[in-house]
Amino acid sequence: MRYEITSRPSYSLLKIYLNPGESVTAEAGSMILMNPDLDVNTQAYGGVISSLKRTILGGESLFLNTFTAKRDAEIWLAPELPGDLIAVELDGSKDLIVQDSSYLAHFGDLSIDVVFRGLKGILAEGQLFWLKLSGRGIVWLGSYGAIEARELGVNERSTIDNFHLVAMDSTISWDVRLFGGLKSALLSGEGIVLDLVGPGRLYVQTRNPRALADFLYNYVRARTGSR
Q1: How far is CA 83 from the centre of its chain?
Q2: Of 44, 88, 112, 218, which has the highest C-beta tally within 10 A?
């Protein structure tokens, strides 16, 4: 298997080239182009119970598509939002925690589950659960905007906006709080932030999908005159 990411960072496209017998699993609806040398198997990945957990708790599709090459084959995949793509390699030594809807596809022996964010996840907004990917292989993640990586050392701290997190190593611990005091939280435009403590690597997106949703809502309401 080999791959390339083109048209980045605004409208990134993932092109995967498979050897005979190799497979890649992708989010439903992400395929843009493929050649006829691929067999497609749509299934509740990891079993019905695991898939229902990802759908109900993690906000992901119930079904995933697995594409298997009969001969040398090519497939193009893209995320829903305009933005970047990155490949994260997992070697089995630690899990990867992924924010809502950032998962695009994976290659290799990986399992997908959900992890409870805890009661503090209620304050953090978004889903109460994150996806957890385990095993050995490559996972491709999408974002709204570009993606930046940051390595945290042991006990090194970093604070990020809740809606800018894409993914992080499972070795990173986190907590949620209001940005500053109540006045800052209400007036600064930041609201809820995550305090992260290393070690591990985290990935952030440079744009906020919640801000996009709010903009579109206000725009449509203004154009249609709805209240």
Answers
A1: 12
A2: 112
Instruction: Enumerate residues 6+ apart whose C-beta is below 8 A from 223.
Output: none
What dihedral angle (degrees, nearest 10) is formed by the CA atoms of 107, 109, 111, 112?
A: -10
Both tokens of 26, joined, read: 């992708």
SS (H, E, C) the chain: CEEEEECCCCCCEEEEEECCCCEEEEECCCEEEECCCEEEEEECCCCHHHHHHHHHCCCCCCCEEEEEECCCEEEEECCCCCECEEEEEEECCCCEEECCCCEEEEEEEEEEEEEECCCHHHHCCCCCEEEEEEEEEEEEEECCECEEEEEECCCCEEEEEHHHEEEEECCCEEEEEECCCHHHHHHCCCCEEEEEECCEEEEEECCCHHHHHHHHHHHHHHHHCCC
**pLDDT tens-digit series, residues 37-70:** 999 998 864 444 444 544 444 444 557 899 999 9
pLDDT tens sequence for the chain (227 residues): 999 999 998 999 999 999 999 999 999 899 999 999 999 998 864 444 444 544 444 444 557 899 999 999 999 999 988 999 999 999 999 999 998 789 999 999 999 887 765 545 545 555 557 889 999 999 999 999 999 999 999 999 999 988 899 999 999 998 888 766 554 444 444 567 889 999 999 999 998 877 777 777 776 777 776 55
Distance linking the first and last C-alpha atoms of the chain = 52
